[in-house]
Design a protein that fits this description.
CATH topology of the largest domain: Immunoglobulin-like
Helix content: 25-40%
Number of domains: 2
Radius of gyration: 31 Å
CATH class of the largest domain: Mainly Beta
Mean pLDDT: 77
């Protein structure tokens, strides 16, 4: 038996509900026609049944049938969207993506982030933290507005080369009176896979799940990233 992921379960549930509704409508309509036939056979000629009531019930059945047909059309759109999303996610594998993330991988003594602030800063402090949240490197950053690239060689402040792995960048920008200035940190990652276990597909970078909403740009891998 195939195993359905979260997206597949949603589609299967919608299909099952529509099928149940269609079967129920057919059963109810058959029952209604049987009762209508019996009523017509046994009605009092001097007091015939109200035909307007029958017409009204037929209209109601027609309206329900149209709603179920609309649901079936929506199912088709859901299936098409799921297929397109899955194809798009797989197409990202092996590509470089810029994402809204403070995390980046140190590989071979090299890690890179991009940060920016909304306004000119008086001072910028850059902290690199390991997976346990420990500060392993600290330096000053660029104070001007716009995107600034921070390349880290993987060495701590004593010059020791640290192990490859996932590290986080924290940027604190202050204005002339010491107030924090909002900053944004992005990182460039290589997509290694696609994840379909949730309600919508996502990208994988190692074991980390990246939402499509966090992807800012995508491109072929550069020579330095290979």
């Amino acid at each position: 038996m195939p195993v359905l992921n979260g997206l597949g379960l949603n589609v299967a549930t919608a299909q099952a509900q529509s099928g149940t509704a269609s079967a129920g409508l057919a059963d109810n309509f058959d029952t209604f026609l049987t009762l209508l036939t019996e009523q017509l056979k046994n009605q009092d000629p001097l007091s015939p049944l109200d035909s307007n009531e029958f017409v009204g019930q037929l209209v109601q059945f027609s309206g329900v049938e149209q709603q179920i047909n609309q649901n079936k059309n929506l199912e088709s759109l859901i299936n098409l969207n799921a297929a397109n999303s899955s194809t798009a996610a797989v197409g990202f594998i092996g590509k470089e993506v810029d994402v809204l993330s403070t995390s980046s991988d140190l590989v071979g003594g090299s890690a890179q982030w991009t940060y920016s602030s909304e306004t000119q800063a008086e001072s910028v402090t850059i902290l690199v933290k390991d997976a346990n949240g420990k500060i392993v490197f600290q330096s000053s950053g660029e104070t001007q507005t716009g995107d600034q690239t921070f390349n880290w060689d993987g060495r701590d402040n004593s010059g020791t080369l640290l192990a490859d792995g996932r590290y986080d960048l924290e940027v604190s920008a202050l204005d002339e009176v010491g107030n924090l200035i909002p900053t944004r940190v992005t990182s460039t990652l290589i997509v290694t896979g696609a994840d379909f276990s949730g309600t919508e597909p996502a990208l994988l970078v190692g074991n980390n799940r990246i939402s499509f909403a966090d992807v800012l740009s995508v491109r072929e891998r550069t020579a330095s990233a290979i």
